[in-house]
UniProtKB/TrEMBL annotation:
The keyword Ligase belongs to this UniProt entry's keyword annotation: yes
Family annotation (SUPFAM superfamilies): Acetyl-CoA synthetase-like
Protein name from the UniProt record: Acetoacetate-CoA ligase
Entries under Pfam families matching the protein: ACAS_N, AMP-binding
Gene3D superfamilies hit by this protein: 3.30.300.30, N-terminal domain of ligase-like (3.40.50.12780)
Coiled coil: none
PROSITE patterns hit by this protein: AMP_BINDING
Keyword Coiled coil: no
Domain Acetyl-coenzyme A synthetase N-terminal: 45-104
Annotated ranges, domain AMP-dependent synthetase/ligase: 136-513
Length: 719
């Protein structure tokens, strides 16, 4: 019944903004229509979007002016996109321009700014069950933020950090982490961030690729009602980096420990170069005599200089170190916040995220608007489902960013924030991580307010921004992303690489260059992997791996992933993160047997494994299923193996990685060159017809029927 209700709701108008002529987007549109003498561009949003894609150089030059980029040198008009409309190799943008991202994000902290004494960052932590209303709120004003960044810049420079060095974070979503990023960007060093809930092995897989000079970390975190010490995990990462560093590779030279949980002891391992956050700022970052303690010497950098490195989910091996350019990130994210979202200093911006997700970068970029950022760390559902809404009420949050999985959990809990907190000021609810199903739209309108813009957004780590998303000048339709974003030439392609019209599902691609295209993958001697990832599926277009349909209203309905990325609860990760844990168990058992240290256990009998996602009945989430091919074992041994694997995955990865189901099968599908064929298995698991699978691409297509039956059994268990 719920699915039927969702189908009936799909594309129904849930919110209409009314007269939008006063929005920044509409004013920008009219300015373009008049300047370029194109009355058709001013007709409607779709016409404006089409122009922005037809002439990317002109659009992005105008966007630069609209969001008021601060730069010491501006690119000449002919140098905005001098290489033309070619999308690969990724072209250089705004050649000759010199700027600094941190300088732009700190614009509202300048002496004399109207916002200089207003909040810039509001740090909040999951409350304890004993004090459910105590979020341990700490506020940092714009002037305080500038002073702390200035201190951190001086301290990093004193440590020898220069443009191009890597600076990493293994921390919570806290104010100090934002300060550390801004200081890194001010110097021109490159930022890398891992969430505190990542296991050390997962962090090492990432950091050994980029080899940071300095690491920021927290002493402890609170999650799911418990305080967890973090220092042992930090020590494991530091030891791993030290042990694996080659003679010519950058060594880790220091760790700065942030006292995130004041109630937890902060033990500094000074033999490893550990320093307290306070000492780092106040001693190493002390201003020279006569120097303004808030003065910052911002490095003026090329538009295409690297800003940060984000990591792919690792579907086909070690996570890819996706390197993003500074100017492209600044321009793209400013466009999304200021033009599409209409964010102003009167807003208060919250986005539920960890520092290991691109939405953290999206959140921090909100500083460009002057709106205070709410940095929350902890479980979104503890001590109760209404906790985040209590926080929203206390802080006056107006833009509430979250995941579709959280909104589904909120509905299931029976929580109705508006009834419990009648003075809520939330005007936008942004949803990402997975498709937001249509039947959740009326729930959100009722739970939050009838004038709420529900902004389902889509993009990804690959571009650290959006292809399509929220739009203050358009209606909201149930189940639809409102529109393709300006400057993003998104089309839907068939398997044959042909553009599809409205109503026909296909692959999301981008056909024109855009400033947020990544520069490449850090540490890759060859460009082959970069090209194969994004540009090889179809000729001269960006292939994103999302399966979507364009609606008659020019919105998008997300149908899922085209590839094998796992996405339970909106947390994306690759299948290789599971395979590596299974392989490690096998290797450990085999080594122990060879050394005569252990009896044979079931782990040594694993012959192969395959992992994929199984959609929940409503289609808004998925669970992880791990299939194992194992030599003959009895039921007790099988259960012991399942327990051992789940425990290892929880320990080596995170609780979010643990499969819902571990199933025993006779075989796993393999391609002709022996690679795991995850996508066919996933399709069959989710109910696709076996006739739709190209068996000619598989070396053992006879195993497919087992996955048809497994899908039937598991789907019935979830229903």
């Amino acid at each position: 019944m719920e699915q039927e209700a969702g189908d009936q709701l799909l594309s129904k108008v849930m919110y209409d903004p009314g007269n939008v002529s006063g929005t920044r987007l509409a004013k920008f549109q009219q300015k373009i229509a008049e300047k370029y003498r194109r009355p058709d561009v001013g007709k409607d949003y779709e016409s404006f979007w089409a122009w922005s894609c037809e002439d990317p150089a002109s659009f992005w030059r105008e966007c630069w002016d609209e969001v008021d980029i601060i730069a010491s040198v501006r690119a000449k008009d002919d140098d905005v996109l001098p290489e033309g409309d070619r999308i690969y190799p990724p072209p250089k943008w705004f050649v000759g321009a010199r700027l600094n991202v941190a300088e732009n994000l700190l614009r509202h902290s300048l002496p004399g700014s109207e916002l200089v004494n207003k909040p810039a960052l509001i740090q909040a932590t999951e409350p304890s069950a004993e004090e459910p209303e105590n979020f341990l709120v700490q506020t940092t004003t714009q002037s305080e933020l500038r002073r702390q960044v200035a201190q951190a810049v001086r301290a990093l420079r004193q440590r020898g950090v220069v443009a191009g060095d890597r600076v990493a974070s293994y921390a919570s979503n806290c104010s100090a982490n934002v300060v550390a990023f801004l200081a890194t960007a001010a110097i021109g060093a490159i930022w890398i961030s891992a969430a505190a809930d990542f296991a050390p092995q997962g962090v090492l897989e990432r950091l050994t690729t980029v080899r940071p000079k300095v690491l920021f970390a927290v002493n402890a975190v609170r999650y799911n009602g418990k305080v967890h010490d973090h220092t042992e995990k930090v020590r494991a990462v530091v030891d791993g980096l030290d042990a694996s560093a080659g003679a010519e590779e950058q060594k880790l030279e220091g760790v700065i420990l942030i006292p995130y949980m004041a109630s937890s002891p902060t033990t500094l391992d000074k033999t490893k170069g550990w320093t307290s956050w306070e000492s780092f700022l106040k001693e190493e970052g002390r201003a020279r005599e006569g120097e303004d303690e808030s003065s910052i010497d911002f490095a003026q950098l090329d538009f295409n200089h690297p800003l940060w490195i984000l990591f792919s989910s690792g579907t086909t091996g070690k996570p890819k170190a996706i390197t993003h350019r500074a100017g492209g990130m600044l321009l793209q994210l400013a466009k999304e916040h200021l033009i599409h979202g209409g964010m102003t200093p009167q807003d208060v911006f919250f986005q539920y995220t960890t520092p290991g997700w691109m939405m953290w970068n999206f959140l921090v970029a909100g500083l460009v608007s002057g709106a205070p950022l709410v940095l929350f760390d902890g479980s979104p559902l503890r001590p109760s489902a209404s906790s985040l809404w209590s926080l929203a009420d206390k802080l006056g949050i107006t833009v509430f960013g979250t995941s579709a999985a959280y909104l589904a959990a909120l509905e299931k809990s029976g929580c109705e924030p508006r009834r419990e907190f009648p003075s809520l000021k939330v005007r936008q609810v942004l949803s990402t991580g997975s498709p937001l199903r249509a039947d959740l739209y009326p729930f959100i309108m009722k739970a939050v307010g009838p004038d709420t813009l529900i902004g389902s957004i889509t993009g990804g780590t690959d571009i650290c921004s959006l292809f399509a998303g929220h739009n203050v000048a358009l209606p909201v339709r149930a189940g639809e992303i409102q529109a393709r974003n300006l400057g993003m030439a998104v089309q839907i392609y068939s398997d044959a690489g042909k553009p599809l019209g409205a109503g026909s599902p296909g692959d999301l691609v981008c056909t024109k260059p855009f400033p947020a295209q990544p520069l490449g993958f850090w540490g890759q001697a060859s460009e082959d992997r970069h090209r194969e990832t994004y540009y090889s599926t179809f000729d001269n277009v960006w292939y994103h791996g999302d399966y979507v349909v364009l609606t008659e209203h020019h919105g998008l309905v997300m149908l899922g992933r085209s590839d094998g990325v796992l996405n339970p609860g909106g947390i994306r990760f690759g299948s290789s993160e599971i395979y590596e844990v299974v392989a490690k168990l096998q290797q450990q058992q085999q080594q122990q047997q060879q050394q005569g240290e252990a009896k044979t256990t079931a782990a040594a009998r694993i012959q192969n494994s395959l992992v994929c996602g199984l959609k929940m009945p409503k289609g808004d989430d998925e669970v992880v299923v791990l299939f194992l091919v194992v030599e003959q074992i009895d039921d007790a041994q099988w259960q012991a193996l399942v327990d051992e694997i789940k425990s290892a995955i929880r320990r080596e990865r995170s609780p979010r990685h643990v499969p819902r189901f571990v199933r025993r099968v006779k075989g796993v599908p393999l391609t002709m060159n022996g690679k795991l064929a995850e996508v066919p298995a996933k399709k069959l698991l989710n109910g696709a017809s076996i006739e739709g699978i190209n068996k000619a691409t598989l070396s053992n297509s006879d195993v497919l029927t087992e996955y048809v039956e497994e899908g039937r059994v598991l789907r019935s268990q979830l229903s």
